[in-house]
């Protein structure tokens, strides 16, 4: 919360202050109106002085106009300021989420991040706009109202002052009980949103496995919980308004009784009583507004804290700097120089040197794992002492059972997670010495079940990158996607919208592969992404990649040996460990698991 106020509210303080001064002026005008009315009734009307009557009528008109204008202008300014602050906050939060390391996203969980970007930022918006609108108005109306009543009639004001502690107590009790109830309701809403999100995303599998009834029951449980918690919080706050109204009415009756007695006795006047009744209502409404403000403030504060936690968490930009500092410590050199190497474009002389070394580089490891071990948060090692080495243009096939760590290798190569130990090279360089952006620009990757966006196929392949049309079309052709796109739409790829296309699993995979190829990456990683292709298309695809993107270094993760048997190196994984590493022929000689797998998949015995 402190973090948010310091960073996001500070630049708007001047504008907020101007708004508050305007609001202050409007509110003071509001406060004067009953007083002027009382003056007119008690003094001006009995004197029957028309010009005085007109004069005070005009003053009332001007005050009403100033009150209206002041409030409207200040409210608009408040809405604008709150909107701008939250737009900026959401922008930063979204950026933060985009830069969060995968381990961070796992830790927060996706639904929690979504609710911070949606309902939490809405609550902060509500808090900022309400504080500006009521933060000045309500206390001034309360205090000003009390001062005015004290000035008008001390005896009547004491009636009001006696009632105030009762009102305060009711408000305090209701607020203290309802705020934690709303916090619990918000937690239930989080769970509810998570379930809805999972169920809608997985609607096909739910139907296919006839889990509809089961999911409906789960949904009903959460739905009931949200409704129940909201009902309880609502029941508690529902006491507030009627009981305040009751006390207001009781107070009014008392004021009228005491007032009537005082008018009769000649110690007070009708206008004063009328004004007093208006102030009484103003004071009560101000108290109600303040209690509402507390609810909104505590809701907003809880949300601001949740947003702050994400904003203050470490993202990939800070990770890069930390890694740099560690390298720096080890090399004992100058930090500034090392940072320049990462954050600034490469020096021309470095480039020239790199060109000279180009030939040698072809022989040097281009993509490599050197004794890499890794665990997710649980601490259990998911990869243990993994090593492989590819020269530029070579291909590695990775094969192994589900859960053996194949996808984790792809995630480490793209820097989504950091290895616990060992070294990873991409483009011939240690990935810890590369910016995340620089690293990922070299890589084209397709994960399992990657996302297609609701856009045309062409845009899905281009994905906002500055690519020539020829590059996109070449990738679509190489991924064997052009044929079905044409068949399906009878028109060009550019216009076929994903939403209406109703694509099969294999067709989706081909578009995703085209997306990875379109950027002409130096390293291509396909994680089980041709599993839905028939053998012929799979073969055509591999042939096209070899021909059209001959210099690409490939990593193919597959379940079928046929998809990887022609790879230059094959890595056999089991439970995060290397069971075998070599060419297909070598593994058929040396690796028992590989032989078994081959036999199972082909029904053959040993390879000839
Ligand atoms: P594969 O691709 O071979 O099926 P993965 O690399 O996806 O295997 O998973 C290897 C192991 O790591 C599995 O035991 C899996 O449960 C675990 N794992 C994968 N992703 C995560 C994650 N984000 N957090 C924690 N554990 C994970």
Verbal overview:
This protein is α/β, with parallel strands linked by helices. The protein has helices spanning 2-9, 13-47, 50-99, 102-108, 110-134, 137-152, 154-201, 203-208, 212-238, 240-265, 270-312, 316-331, 335-343, 348-356, 358-363, 406-413, 436-441, 457-462, 469-478, 482-489, 498-501, 505-518, 535-548, 561-564, 584-590, 592-602; strands at residues 367-375, 381-390, 395-400, 421-426, 429-430, 443-446, 523-527, 553-558, 569-574, 577-582. Helix 5 runs antiparallel to helix 7 (154-201) and helix 10 (240-265) packs antiparallel against helix 11. It is elongated. Bound molecules: adenosine-5'-diphosphate (ADP).
Please describe the topology of this protein.
Layout: H1 2-9, H2 13-47, H3 50-99, H4 102-108, H5 110-134, H6 137-152, H7 154-201, H8 203-208, H9 212-238, H10 240-265, H11 270-312, H12 316-331, H13 335-343, H14 348-356, H15 358-363, E1 367-375, E2 381-390, E3 395-400, H16 406-413, E4 421-426, E5 429-430, H17 436-441, E6 443-446, H18 457-462, H19 469-478, H20 482-489, H21 498-501, H22 505-518, E7 523-527, H23 535-548, E8 553-558, H24 561-564, E9 569-574, E10 577-582, H25 584-590, H26 592-602
Parallel strand pairs: 3-8, 3-9, 6-7, 7-8
Antiparallel strand pairs: 1-2, 1-4, 4-5, 9-10
The protein binds adenosine-5'-diphosphate.
Mean pLDDT, all residues: 84
Low-confidence stretches: 333-352
Tell me the total number of β-strands.
10
Instruction: Give the number of helices.
Output: 26
Sheet/helix structural class? alpha/beta
How would the global form be characterised?
elongated
Strand content: 5-15%
Share of helical residues = 55-70%
User: Rounded to an integer, what's the Rg over CA atoms?
Assistant: 36 Å
Major beta sheet, strand line-up = 6-7-8-3-9-10
Spell out which ligands are present.
Answer: adenosine-5'-diphosphate
Major sheet size, sense and barrel closure: 6 strands, mixed
What is the terminal-to-terminal distance? Answer: 70 Å
What's the oligomerization state? Answer: single chain
């Amino acid at each position: 919360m402190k973090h948010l106020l310091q960073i996001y509210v500070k630049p708007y303080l001047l504008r907020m202050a101007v708004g508050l001064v305007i609001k202050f002026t409007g509110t003071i005008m509001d406060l004067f109106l009953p007083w002027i009315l009382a003056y007119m009734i008690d003094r001006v009307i009995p004197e029957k002085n028309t010009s005085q009557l007109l004069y005070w009528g005009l003053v009332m008109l001007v005050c009403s106009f100033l009150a209206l204008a002041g409030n409207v202008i200040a409210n608009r300014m408040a809405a604008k300021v709150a909107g701008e602050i939250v737009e900026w906050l959401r922008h930063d939060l979204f950026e933060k989420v985009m830069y969060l390391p995968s381990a961070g996203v796992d830790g927060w969980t996706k639904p929690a991040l979504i609710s911070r970007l949606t309902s939490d930022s809405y609550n902060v918006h509500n808090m900022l706009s309400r504080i500006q609108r009521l933060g000045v108005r309500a206390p001034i109306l309360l205090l000003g109202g009390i001062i005015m009543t004290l000035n008008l009639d001390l005896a009547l004001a004491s009636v009001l002052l006696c009632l105030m502690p009762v009102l305060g107590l009711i408000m305090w009790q209701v607020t203290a009980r309802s705020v934690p109830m709303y916090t619990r309701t918000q937690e239930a809403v989080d769970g509810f949103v998570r379930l809805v999100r999972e169920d809608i995303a997985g609607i096909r599998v739910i139907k296919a496995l006839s889990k509809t009834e089961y999911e409906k029951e789960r949904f009903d449980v959460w739905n009931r919980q949200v409704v129940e918690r909201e009902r309880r919080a609502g029941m508690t706050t529902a006491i507030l308004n009627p009981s305040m109204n009751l006390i207001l009415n009781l107070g009014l009756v008392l004021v009228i009784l005491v007032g009537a007695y005082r008018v009769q006795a000649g110690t007070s006047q009708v206008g004063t009583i009328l004004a007093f009744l208006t102030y009484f209502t103003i004071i009560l409404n101000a108290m109600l507004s303040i209690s509402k403000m507390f609810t909104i403030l505590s809701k907003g504060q809880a949300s601001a804290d949740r947003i702050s936690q994400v904003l203050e968490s470490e993202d990939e930009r800070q990770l890069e700097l930390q890694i740099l500092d560690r390298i720096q410590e080890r090399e004992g050199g100058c930090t500034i120089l090392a940072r320049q190497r990462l954050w600034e474009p490469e020096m021309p002389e470095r480039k020239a040197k790199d060109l000279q070394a180009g030939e040698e580089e072809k022989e040097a490891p281009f993509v490599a794992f050197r004794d890499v071990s890794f665990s997710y948060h649980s601490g259990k090692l998911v990869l243990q002492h993994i090593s492989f080495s590819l020269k530029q243009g070579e291909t590695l096939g990775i094969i192994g059972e589900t859960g053996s760590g194949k996808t984790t290798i792809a995630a480490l190569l793209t820097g989504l997670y950091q290895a616990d130990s060992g070294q990873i090279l991409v483009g011939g360089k240690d990935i810890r010495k590369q910016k995340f952006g620089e690293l990922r620009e070299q890589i084209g990757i397709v994960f399992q079940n990657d996302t297609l966006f609701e856009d045309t196929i062409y845009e899905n392949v281009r994905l906002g990158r500055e690519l020539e049309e020829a590059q996109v079309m070449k990738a679509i052709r190489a991924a064997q996607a052009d044929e079905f796109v044409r068949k399906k739409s009878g028109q060009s790829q550019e216009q076929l919208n994903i939403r209406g296309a109703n694509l099969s699993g294999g067709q989706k995979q081909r578009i995703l592969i085209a997306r990875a190829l379109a950027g002409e990456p130096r390293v291509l990683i396909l994680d089980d992404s041709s599993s839905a292709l028939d053998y012929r298309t799979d073969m055509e695809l591999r042939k096209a990649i070899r021909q059209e993107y001959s210099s690409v270094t490939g990593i193919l993760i597959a379940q079928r040996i046929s998809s990887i048997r022609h790879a230059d190196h094959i890595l056999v994984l089991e439970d995060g460990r290397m069971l075998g590493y070599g060419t297909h022929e070598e593994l058929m000689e040396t690796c028992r698991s590989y032989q078994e797998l081959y036999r199972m998949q082909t029904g053959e015995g040993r390879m000839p």
